[in-house]
């Protein structure tokens, strides 16, 4: 039956998976029930959703540790995605912040779909200086960078910060945020991305294809590791007395990662003088508001590598898994 003013669609298209495996193999676009807003919720028609390493970990069910919450044999949550931007289509009777037609962005699960539904506090008004695609690129990566530097790293003006993996989704935000906080920023990346991170505000750039950044003899107050491709001992050598290495990324692992790195960091931190901390970002309404202010002021701007249509979500995630993306990868709906 055709959709009319009196017969709204009861279903929507969404990216989903019903078994664990490589995203390109298990993701499918199918028709699922369309959500309806509760009294304190808004219904958003999705225009863009970005992809994150979290998505491929959940879809693959790796490391196997994630299955303890996601389902051992089959996934419990079958629509991936946590970053979203779109247009408010309907609001619950208690909603006061938004009305239909408002353009919004937020940090919300089940984002790879035509519609998402959530409480109004999870959304913010689209920044005037950004497109919806750019807005969708912000939440998970920028939250991770903010919480890693500000909370885990206790960043302050004039401190020395090294960012390994500075040209990826988290790294591009971390370089801009560290610069905003007044730090002296050293960025580690590969040859094709040197100019990019310089333009983002890095004071100096180390091309890891030409130089081993762990053997320069330099020491830093904060070492932010977004890659996980160096040993804990190598990271500790980079940390100045009283400083901290904040581990955000870990190389792909089928079994327990990042548990060994977390445990090793605890042990090495007890040797005194230099700390190694693993951190996992969490959704926070106040931090989202902080990011909105930083975007409006021009302190941070998302870097988008590629945009894919929703039906090519598997291809988008496969590209992200190569670890070669410059900034964020975004799906358009």
Polypeptide structure, described:
By secondary structure, the chain is an alpha/beta fold. Strand 11, helix 8 (232-238) and strand 12 form a beta-alpha-beta unit. It contains eleven helices and 15 strands.
State Rg. 20 Å
H/E element order: EHEEHHEEEEHHEHEHEEHEHEHEHE
How many beta-strand elements? 15
Low-confidence stretches: 1-6
Distance separating the two termini: 22 Å
Shape: globular
Round the mean pLDDT to the nearest integer and report it.
Answer: 92
Structural class: alpha/beta
How many DSSP helices?
Answer: 11
Characterize the largest beta sheet: strand count, sense, and whether it forms a barrel: 7 strands, mixed
Provide the β-strand percentage band.
Answer: 25-35%
Relative helix content:
25-40%
Name the descriptors:
333 residues, 6-stranded parallel sheet, 11 helices, alpha/beta, globular, 15 strands, 27% strand, 7-stranded mixed sheet
In short, what is this structure?
This protein has 333 residues and is α/β, with parallel strands linked by helices. The protein has helices at residues 23-26, 53-60, 67-70, 132-136, 139-152, 169-180, 194-200, 232-238, 259-269, 285-297, 313-321; strands at 11-16, 28-33, 41-51, 83-91, 103-107, 115-119, 123-125, 160-164, 184-189, 204-207, 220-225, 239-247, 275-278, 304-309, 328-332. The longest helix is centred in the middle third of the chain and has 14 residues, at 139-152.
């Amino acid at each position: 039956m055709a959709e009319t003013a009196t017969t709204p669609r009861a279903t929507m298209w969404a990216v989903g998976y019903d078994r664990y495996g490589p995203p390109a193999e298990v993701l499918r676009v199918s028709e699922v029930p369309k959500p309806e807003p509760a009294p304190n919720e808004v219904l958003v028609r999705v225009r863009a959703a970005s992809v994150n390493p979290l998505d491929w970990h959940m879809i693959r069910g790796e490391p196997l540790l994630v299955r303890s919450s996601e389902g051992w044999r089959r996934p419990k949550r079958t629509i991936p995605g946590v970053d979203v931007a779109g247009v408010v289509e309907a609001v619950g009777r208690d909603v006061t912040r938004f009305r239909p037609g408002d353009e919004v962005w937020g940090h919300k699960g089940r984002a790879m779909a035509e519609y998402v539904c959530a409480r109004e506090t999870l959304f913010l008004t689209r920044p005037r200086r950004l497109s919806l695609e750019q807005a969708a690129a912000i939440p998970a990566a920028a939250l991770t960078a903010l919480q890693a530097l500000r909370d885990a790293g206790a960043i302050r003006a004039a401190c020395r910060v090294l960012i390994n993996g500075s040209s990826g989704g988290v790294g591009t935000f971390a370089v801009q945020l560290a610069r905003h906080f007044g730090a002296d920023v050293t960025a580690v990346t590969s040859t094709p991305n040197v100019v990019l991170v310089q333009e983002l505000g890095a004071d100096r750039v180390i091309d890891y294809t030409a130089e081993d950044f762990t053997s320069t003899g330099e020491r830093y107050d904060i070492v932010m590791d977004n890659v996980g491709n160096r040993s804990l001992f190598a990271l500790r050598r980079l940390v100045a007395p009283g400083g901290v290495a904040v581990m955000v990324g870990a190389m792909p692992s089928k079994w327990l990662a990042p548990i060994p790195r977390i445990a090793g960091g605890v042990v090495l931190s007890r040797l005194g003088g230099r700390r190694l901390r693993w951190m996992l970002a969490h959704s926070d309404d106040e931090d989202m508001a902080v990011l909105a202010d930083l975007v409006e002021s021009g302190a941070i701007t998302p870097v988008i590598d590629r945009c894919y249509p929703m039906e090519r979500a598997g291809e988008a995630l496969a590209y992200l898994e190569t670890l070669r993306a410059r900034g964020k990868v975004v799906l358009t709906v």
